[in-house]
Design a protein that fits this description.
InterPro entries: DUF6265 (IPR046232). It holds the Pfam family DUF6265. This is DUF6265 domain-containing protein. The structure is a single chain. The chain is an alpha+beta fold. It folds into two domains: 33 residues; 132 residues, Lipocalin (Beta Barrel), CATH 2.40.128.20. Helix content is 21%, strand content 50%. It contains two helices and ten strands.
């Protein structure tokens, strides 16, 4: 009788451990796919530059964690920094939010842009309440390149500025 009780106990223990392992695997799969929306933009990670005779623009993207990419971007003209910004793309639920902070603009407050549904690897973030830019778009037309542009209204006139970056690392 004692052997039967021990055998039943061992079988119960084995099934219990198996169920626990299945539960851990399910949880693992959920956490792996939890941030799958931001995966489509991880090609941004790296250092990028846009060098033309009049100015030099640089953008450096890093992965902060599973749900967040961060960047610092700046432009120089004749070795003077004429523009700089900090950016963050963060996945909240299934929505991607691009937050941009520019010194001496927007009362030092960050501005958020929401990703609209992508088409053909064109990632457009919009904030219709913001004058310029109200749209920020990133594409990866060929490997190791970015075509980005900002657009919106400046003094009631539509304006679009293109940036063509090449990977520098």
């Amino acid at each position: 009788m004692r052997k039967i009780i021990i055998l039943i106990g061992l079988v119960s223990l084995i099934f219990s451990c198996e169920k626990k392992r299945e539960k851990v695997e399910e949880t693992s799969n959920i956490s792996e796919s939890k941030y799958n929306t931001i995966e489509s933009l991880k090609w941004l990670v790296g250092n990028w530059d846009n060098i033309i005779p009049e100015q030099q623009s640089y953008e450096s993207w890093k992965q902060k964690n599973d749900s967040t990419l961060i960047a610092y971007s700046y432009t120089t003209v004749s070795k003077d920094t004429v523009f700089q910004e900090n950016m963050r793309i963060q996945q909240i639920s299934n929505q991607l939010i691009l937050t941009v902070s520019v010194p001496n603009q927007n009362d030092e407050q960050p501005v958020e842009f929401k990703l609209i549904p992508e088409s053909n690897n064109v990632f457009t973030f919009i904030n219709e309440q913001h004058d310029f830019p109200s749209k920020i778009t990133y594409t990866n037309p060929v490997k190791d390149s970015i075509h980005a542009w900002v657009e919106g209204q400046i003094d009631s006139t539509y304006k679009k500025i293109d940036f063509y970056f090449k990977r520098s690392n």
